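Exercise: predict the fold of this chain.
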Amino acid sequence: MKFTFGITTCASENEHHLQWRDRILFILDSIRSQNIPEYEIIIVGGPYPKNGRNAHRLHAYGDVVHIPFSDEESWEKSKEFKDIKINKHPGLKNGWITKKKNLIWKNSKYNNIVMLHDYYYFLPGWYENFKKFGDDWDFCWNVKLNYWNGRHRDWVSWDHPSYPMRSNLPYTDTNSTKYQYFDGNYTIGKKEAWEKYPWNEKYLYGMPEDLEWSFRVRKDNNLTLKFNANSIVKHIIPRYTGDERFSWQDERKTTKALEYLKKTYPEEW
C-alpha cells in the first residue's frame, strides 16, 4: 500500500509548550519508522523555515513536500473571509483548515491519503496492520489515543438513538455510520473520495467544519466507510486531550455556525 501523509499546521515555535520543530520531527520520524516502501509527506502551512534549528533533519529527506500557506494573505484575497477580523473569530487563530486539507489531496501523488493535524504520531505497527486490514474502503479511520492512552474521538456517534450524543462507539459497530460524526483532526480517504467530498472552504477551524463534512459523507450509501481497530495513532499534546470541559449540547445551541448547520441540515437536528 502506498500512502500520502498530509499534515496541516499553522503552529508557532512555542505553541502548546512543545517546540513546533520537535513536534513535527517526532511526527515525521514516526512515519519513517513504519518502513513504508512508497510514501510521501505533505506539510501545509506553518513557519517551516529552512535556516532554523534541526533544519538539516527537516529538509534532508526527499519524502517531505512543504506547501507554504499564509492564512492572513489567503483571508485577504478570499471572498468569504476578507472582511473577518482575526481577533473577532476564534477559527482564525487556527487557520483556514479546510483549504489546507483540500490542498493535500489536490497535490498528493498516492491514492491512500492520511490527513492529520500536527499533533498525532504513528505507533509502531501502524503500516503493517494496515496492510493486513486492506484497502477496500473509500474513507477509513483507526484507533486514536489521547496523551493518557484513552480513546480520543476515533469512532463516534452524533445522533444515534441508542447512544448519548458524541459517544464512542464500539469498534465492532460497523452499522451506525449514518449516525456518526467523523472528527476532522485525523481522516484517511481515497483521492477520488476526497474529490467527491472535499472540505467546505466556507468553514474555518472549529466552525465546525468536520461536522458539516460528516453530514455530507454519512448520507452517501454508496461510500464504503470502515474502521481499522489495529492501527493506532496517539496525541502528543496533553492539553488537547484531557478532561474536555465543554458541553457539545450547550455549544450546539449557541454557536452561530451550528445554527447555520441546523438550517442546512434540518433533518439532523
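Check your answer against the key: Confidence is low (pLDDT under 50) at residues 86-91, 240-257.
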